[in-house]
Amino acid sequence: MSTRGMVGSLARFAGQVAHPILRIVVRERALGRYQNLIEPGEAPRMAHVLLSGFTGRHRTLRNGQRQITALLVPGDLCDLEIVLRGWADCGITTLSPCVFGEIPLECVADPLQQEPELARTLLRYLLHRQAIDSERVLSLGQRSALQRLAHLFCELRERLHAIGLADEEGYNLPLTQFELAELTGMSSVHMNRTLQELRGQNLIAWRKGLLSLLDRPALEQLAEFDPTYLRLP
Question: Least CB-packed of 24, 30, 63, 197 within 10 Å?
Answer without folding.
Answer: 63
